[in-house]
User: Fold this.
Amino acid sequence: MKTDVLVIGGGPAGIAAAINAWIAGAKVILIEREYRLGGILNQCIHNGFGLHFFGEELTGPEYATRFIEMLNKTTARVLLNTAAVKLTKKDKLFVVSTSGEHGLVDIEAKSIVLAMGCRERAGGAIGLAGERPAGVFTAGFAQKMINCYGKHIGKKVVILGSGDIGLIMARRLKCEGADVVGVYEIASTSSGLKRNISQCLMDFNIPITYNTTVTKVEGKKRVTGVWVAPVDKNWKPIKEKAKLIKCDTLLLSVGLIPENDLVINHPIEISPLTNGAITDEQGQTTMKGIFSCGNVMHVHDLVDNVSHEAARAGKHAALSALGKLRSGKKIPVQHCDKIRYVQPTSVYKSDADTAHIFFRVKQDYRRAALIAYSDGKQIARKNCMIVTPGEMQELEIIKTRLGSDLVIKVEAF
Amino acid sequence: MKTICIVCPVGCELNIKKADRQITVTGHECIRGRDYGVKEYTAPERIVTTIVPLPDGQGTAALKTDKAIDKRLVKDALLEISRAQVSPVLKPGYIFIKNLLGTGANVVVTCINKEK
Ligand SMILES: Cc1cc2nc3c(=O)[nH]c(=O)nc-3n(C[C@H](O)[C@H](O)[C@H](O)COP(=O)(O)OP(=O)(O)OC[C@H]3O[C@@H](n4cnc5c(N)ncnc54)[C@H](O)[C@@H]3O)c2cc1C
Ligand code: SF4
Assistant:
């Protein structure tokens, strides 16, 4: 099979990329390993999606449906139940070996959009002690079992980690009739949205304990309890203060890792901070012709941002395939040490009218001005009452204001 | 009553009291927090989302209320939904329950989760 652009992954990122690659004039194939499009949105039955993109609050599946309907109006070809297993390069073309309902098929493409999303960190990744009894789930997997398959996963649940998925699942389990004993968070604050702390925990009287972690799981066949202990400043558990909490289920909401296995043997630079590929403003990785967007590039909290970012990557992947990609002078995006990372890491001086810089700060800053400087002059600014690491920040850069460099800073105002 | 203002990411911790028919909110950093606090005290509302298993046991229908309903009715709403008969021909957009508990909100299908 041959195409101009091959999009790998059919979540919100892949769908938006495919639509925009098609609009830009390319022949497009989109492959998705599941039986349907939508990615993680299919299991997010709660509302809170699309406020920025559509100006209304949709549930995850509804947000996905809007984009799938747009995709259906294009001639982009969608292959479901098809997983990309290997990526190689043959002369100027990329060859993606896929495995699926058509057997093993190689697809040749002029450019590739990576949109594989991310997977959850599991117990092993955080060094949880104890046997491996049944009843330990990652929060996202539990979400899929309950919401998509209608399964019950347990009666008495402890949740480790207070990211948004953990908080959403605390409420979900309570609504399903389970007893949610509590949420334990190793940090002194939650990385989840305030809205979720309020509406998922407080609304249902679910307690959250900070500076505390789970150290050991009890039980042979099924979880019978977990040991929780407060931690010191270096997040080391204070063993003497550990106590046993009876439960039959432990949910882990301890972070997401971009799923980049496919490109591990390629000269694509992966950021140690995001675990995703480093990209320029057009969404292109350090390997020419390979673009990246969505959660496989950096973990997003708002799907609206994913759609915007993926639209840009898809468009430029098409232009690259058609030999129309404009480049020109690249300006690296520098940042101050209050910022953990920025994406994209470089912008073009002339391509496009504006560039959108996404970044996360290292800790909470109150009364913070987010400022973009070029040649020492302010070229974009946003004043915020507070910025937190859990929330992705964004600055829009108007290209005509861009001089010879670009520095993003967080300052007090 | 204590709550967190969710209007902006600052997340002020609000303390809401009623004395002599007067509702007072403290802890807010701006006026929007006071309005939010008063609303949460007097008439808090939530959109309810949940699922029901499909009759053949193969998958689920995801549901939501098409309007926010009184927060104090959320528990009863979930019970009412779980008791309702599930038709095998549900589709996204179908009304699953009309006028849920007399709130004026309908329960609508947002997604059918079924592997063909
Ligand atoms: C529990 C949870 C709650 C959330 N709540 C909100 C919210 O309230 N509001 C909001 O705006 N955002 C929310 N988000 C964030 C938002 O849903 C995600 O940022 C977004 O779905 C990421 O899109 P994506 O396309 O990059 O990844 P995904 O949605 O994960 O899609 C990736 C797709 O790629 C496929 N794939 C992976 N590898 C391969 C392969 N090798 N071959 C073929 N296909 C492959 C996968 O099957 C999947 O379908 C939430 C996320 C989660 C997990
Ligand atoms: S009170 Fe004002 S500043 Fe505080 S969280 Fe609410 S909207 Fe934000």
Residues A 8-14, 31-34, 39-41, 44, 48-49, 83-84, 115-117, 140, 143, 164-165, 168, 259, 262, 294-296, 300-304, 306 surround flavin-adenine dinucleotide (ligand 1) (CB under 6 Å). The mean pLDDT of chain B is 93. Chain B touches chain A at residues 3-6, 8-11, 29-30, 46-47, 49-54, 57, 59-60, 62-64, 71, 74, 78, 92, 110-111, 113, 115-116 (CB under 8 Å).
